[in-house]
Structures are given as structure tokens and as C-alpha cells.
From TrEMBL:
Transmembrane spans: 48-71, 105-123, 144-171, 191-213, 220-237, 269-291
Biased composition (Polar residues): 1-11
Region Disordered, residue ranges: 1-30
Keywords for the protein's UniProt record, in alphabetical order: Membrane, Transmembrane, Transmembrane helix
Key word Protein biosynthesis present: no
Protein name: ABC-type transport system involved in multi-copper enzyme maturation permease subunit
Species whose genome carries this gene: Arthrobacter oryzae
Amino acid sequence: MSSTTVESTPSPRDAGSRTRRTGSGTSAGPGPTFLRVLNSEFIKFRTLLSTLILLGSTVIVMVGFGALSAWGTGQFSQAATRDPQAAARLAAQGGDLAVGVPTSGIAFAQLILGSLGVLLMSSEFTTGMARSTFAAVPKRLPAFAAKLVVVVVTSFVVTAVSTLAAGFLATPILGNYGLNLDLASSQSVKMLIVNSIYVAAVAAIGLALGTLIRNSAGGIMSLVGLFFVAPIAFQLIPGDFFVEARKYLPGNTVAPLTALDHVPATLEAWQAGLVLGAWVVVPVLLAAFLLKRRDV
């Protein structure tokens, strides 16, 4: 006596559930979509104590230097009324001295947030977290792009908020010396936006250096060398080549972008913008390319 096996035809509901389980087809199933990767990177970013310390340090440094610069600017303007030499130096500087007070701590903000960009990627390799990250996101580039978005947006927002806070604190200090700081003026808004974009660009460069070097100390030292050591070295080394090359260092692109009028011996504003953009795009693209090619 033979037995007959009857094969049941899967229902559309079963087929749909199988499709969702395998993650294939057009239905929204499990998988590392960019929004999910971005959310994951943001969670990792905001839950690290080191990140919060660096962001808090940026705000403190920006606000502190804004207050200190306001006091120093007031003292300088007051001395100019009594000292002819100080008055001559004040006239030689030109423009409104008060407008640059809120952004006087930018040099330190770029170092802190640039280092944050380095650590955001280099720590993945030094701690071995990169294996888990790229096992979850095998294509790697979405994880890199998500980190880039997180650090750039955060750096821009933190710098802008810190600049505003420094401006609000500096306004009454400058007022004691008869100086007026209009935070709503076109030049103040320009200073805030340009400097915030610049610090965000430095953070992107830091992320690229952390990806390329894969070492926190090496990445931070490279960042310091590029933004602090190289300008001084190019200024000390004699020769027309170094005088001209110094204009194209990323740290020397802010002054042309924020100046009311073109400053002699500097790039035009549009040239400075292109140079800064190139300093961001080239390392980021190189880092993304090598991230795909190299082993974890």
C-alpha cells in the first residue's frame, strides 16, 4: 500500500513573511539602511563620555575667550585714547574690533572638534570596534558617511551656539568701554556662519585623518601639524615659494572669507572657499577609497 504525500502550496501571506525575513524584495525589511546607520552612529556619538567632554570644552573655551577678548579689546580701545602709539595701532587695524570678539576662540575650537573628528574614526580601529561596525555595515561607506554627517553637523551647531553665547556675554563687557557689538549685523552673522562652516570643515578633515592613519595620537598630531605648525614654519622659512604656499594652507582661508574688503597678500574670497573645499573633499574621498580597500 503506497502513501501519497501532498505538498501544500504556500499562501501569499507566508510568501510575504518569508520575503520580509530574508530582507529581499521591495518590502521594508531588516538591513543597514543609511538612516538606520546614521541613527546608530548618532547614538554611539552622544553616549560616549569623551564626546560630551570635548563638546562641553568647546563651549567653555569659546565663551571664555569671548569674554577675555572683550575685556582685552576694551582695555586696548581705552588705552588708545591716552596713548598715541596705541591709537595708531588701532587705526592701522581698521574695521570694527568688536565684531571679531565672539569668534576669538575659534583656533581652540577647531583643535578640539578636529580632534573629535579624528577620535570618532580612529577609536573604531584602536578598540577593535571596527570589526563589529563593518560586520553590521559590510559596505563600509554608509558607516563612514554617517560618521561624517554626525561630526560635521554637530561641529557646526556647537560652534554657532558657542559663538552666540560668547557674543551675548561679550556685549555688556564691551559696553562698559563704550564699544557696541551688534550681533544682528550682517558682518556678525557672516562671522558666525563662516567660522562655523570652517570648524565643521576641520572636523571633516580630522575624520579623514583618523580613517587614513587609524591611530588617535598620529591623527591628532597630523591635525596639529597642518593647522598650527605648518603656518608658523612657512612663515619662518625664507623664500617666495613658502610665502605664496602659506596662502593655501586651510587655516589661512578664514580671514579672506570674513574680511570686509580684500586683504593684501591673501586669496580672494572665492579662491579661499575653493581651497578650503579642496582640503575637505580630497582627504575625505581618499579616506573613503582606502577604507573600502584595506582590511579592518
